[in-house]
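[recover] target loaded
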């Protein structure tokens, strides 16, 4: 929606400075009518807002976009924008965060485009809204703390928010048939149990052949392929984070034969379960198998000339 009157109003406002890029800055803000932000050149980082109450108004790329409770908006770097409290009746209450995304976050930022440079997603589920609010609360507490880990903790809270919203966006775009969703939920909860397609089909009032066709059509993989993927991904977690042996892991995730499990695992991950465990353990502790730190330090110290060792 484009409103020339709003254009004229914003153009007469002073320019609002933005925080320097490269740092994570966040807050909870309650803004009464008359509050406004104007940035004709945008910012050099991403700006995320999550509305808790009231109504906000964004002006981006000639489009006017209103936000209400549960609306999460993201402004891309360089996107000229103006936003303000929209109604004199109720303050606009929202969380905001300026951030520079880590490389692996980028795929989670592709929310539906509302205007050029503005993306958004409405969070309708009350439980999900509450979880996002709690993550924002942790983000604020951690960013204001004095711990040496505050930057990492703050980033983890923001990462959780981005993942939750990206998951909701993907789910909304996919619009799975309710019967397929019910089967997916069952597979996630009971992946270690034998698969009985006839019973699953009966639960969702479909024939086995119709369920198999509908599931493959919507999920992109067959029931067997999906179940196998769930089992192998859980097995990879157990290999990384537990001391269970290969046979125990195979049984725990639903394989009757450890040999069949090992063969399927190698096909899926490109290496045997034992090789995978060695790899992930080395990545978590790259000093495993290397010269002890104390010995390395002693070599380094003795190698320093006497006249330089006191600097």
């Amino acid at each position: 929606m484009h409103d020339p009157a709003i254009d004229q109003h914003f153009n007469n406002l002073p320019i609002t400075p933005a925080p320097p890029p490269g740092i994570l800055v966040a807050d909870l803000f309650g803004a009464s009518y008359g509050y406004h932000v104007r940035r004709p050149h945008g910012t050099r980082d991403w700006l995320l807002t999550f509305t808790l109450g009231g109504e906000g108004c964004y002006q981006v790329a000639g489009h006017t976009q209103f936000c209400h409770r549960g609306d999460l908006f993201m402004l891309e770097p360089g996107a000229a924008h103006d936003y303000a409290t929209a109604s004199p009746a109720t303050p606009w209450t929202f969380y905001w965060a300026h951030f520079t995304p880590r490389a692996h976050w980028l795929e989670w930022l592709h929310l539906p485009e509302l205007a050029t440079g503005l993306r958004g997603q409405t969070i309708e589920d009350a439980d999900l809204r509450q979880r996002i609010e709690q993550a924002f609360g942790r983000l604020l507490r951690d960013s204001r703390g004095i711990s040496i880990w505050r930057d990492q903790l703050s980033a983890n809270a923001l990462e959780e928010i981005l993942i939750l919203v990206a998951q909701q966006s993907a789910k909304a775009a996919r619009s799975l048939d309710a019967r397929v969703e019910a089967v997916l939920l069952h597979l996630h909860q009971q992946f270690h149990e034998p698969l009985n397609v006839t019973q699953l089909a009966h639960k969702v009032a479909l024939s086995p052949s119709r369920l198999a066709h509908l599931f493959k059509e919507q999920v992109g993989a067959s029931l067997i392929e999906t179940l196998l993927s769930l089992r192998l991904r859980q097995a990879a977690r157990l290999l990384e984070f537990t001391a269970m042996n290969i046979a125990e892991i195979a049984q725990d995730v639903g394989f009757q034969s450890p040999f069949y499990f090992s063969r399927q695992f190698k096909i899926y991950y490109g290496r045997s379960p034992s090789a995978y465990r060695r790899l992930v353990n080395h990545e978590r502790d790259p000093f495993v198998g290397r010269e002890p730190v104390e010995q390395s330090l002693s070599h380094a110290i003795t190698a320093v000339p006497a006249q330089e060792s006191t600097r």
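[recover] notes: The mean pLDDT is 86.
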